[in-house]
Amino acid sequence: MRRRVLGKKFFDEPTLDVARSLLGKYMVRRRGKTEKAYMITEVEAYDGPRDKASHASHGRTPRVEVMFGEAGKLFVYFTYGMHWMLNVVTGPKDYPAAVLVRGVEGINGPGRVTKKLLVDKKLNGKKAAPSSGLWFEDRGIAIRRSAISRTSRIGVSYAGSYWASRKYRFVLSV
DNA sequence: ACGATGATGAAC
DNA sequence: TTCATCATCGTA
């Protein structure tokens, strides 16, 4: 099987492009000797300091510092008192942007993804790479444009009508 | 439908 | 220092 680990070059692109490109790619998790790969089926883009749905719209706080950093780093934060959210940083340094992984094959919901893959704050700020135990791979699956649907993002009504209605969510239809 | 559960930022 | 708000999920 053809495998290519996705690195900085892949993620250092416009957030929306990266989000769409991640569909059909694989997220690989290694814990000790066991390694599991899951095809990515649902993502959301959070794009820049003016995106009111992005936590980075409040400025460069410790919680979101990683979003301002290097593309290809993992951004993990805690919400709703019980869920970890897994993102990967995109675009240039000092431009806060990331893609939230909302679903993978067989697992729907960002909180379930992190629970299943045992993701928590220990991964925050780590590079998405085999050395950190969590990374992304291109395994040669081609995704047709027609297999991708775009919708507005989930749970961001607080962001105001403009930002809440941006079609920044990408879903791979079965 | 709503409660669990806690970090965050804004208000006071 | 308190408070409402949340990129949610499970149970109902």
Topology:
Layout: E1 4-5, H1 8-11, H2 15-22, E2 26-31, E3 34-47, E4 74-79, E5 83-89, E6 97-104, E7 107-108, H3 110-116, E8 134-138, E9 148-151, H4 160-165, E10 169-172
Antiparallel strand pairs: 1-8, 2-3, 2-8, 3-6, 3-10, 4-5, 5-6, 6-7, 9-10
This protein binds a DNA duplex (12 and 12 nucleotides) through strand 4, strand 5 and helix 3.
Notes on the structure:
The chain is α+β, with helices and mostly antiparallel strands and 174 residues long. Strand 4 (74-79) and strand 5 (83-89) form a beta hairpin. 14% of the residues lie in helices and 33% in strands. The chain has a single domain, classed as Roll (3-methyladenine DNA Glycosylase, Chain A), CATH 3.10.300. Strands 1, 2, 3, 4, 5, 6, 7, 8, 9 and 10 form a 10-stranded antiparallel β-sheet that branches. The protein is built from 4 helices and 10 strands. The structure holds a DNA duplex (12 and 12 nucleotides).
